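I'll show a sample.
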Amino acid sequence: MDFGERLRELRKKAGYTQVELAEKANVTKSVISYYENKDRSPSPDVVKRFSEIFNVSTDYLLGANNREIPDMIDVSGLSEKEVAALKLIIDSMKGRK
C-alpha cells in the first residue's frame, strides 16, 4: 500500500473529510486530494504532521512498515521504577519471565 492509499484509509478510519484533515495538517483540501490520488508526494514535514495526527509512524505512512502501531513506547517523563514496571508487563504479555 502506498502513501496515498494509506492516507485515505487513515482519514476515513478517523472519520475526517478531506477538508477537516487539511485544516488539521495546515494544507489545502486540494493537497489532500493530490496526495490521495498520487498526483503529488508530501514533504517530510507534512509526513511528520500526518503521523502525529493519526498517531502512526512515518514508516507506516510511507509503506515501509505495515505495523500501524509503532514498536516503541515513549517513556519520557517516567521514573526508572515506572519504566521497569512497564518492561515487566510487556515481558509478561510476551510470555517471558
Notes: The two ends are 37 Å apart (CA to CA). DSSP finds six helices and no strands in the chain. The helical segments are 3-14, 18-25, 29-36, 44-54, 58-62, 80-93.
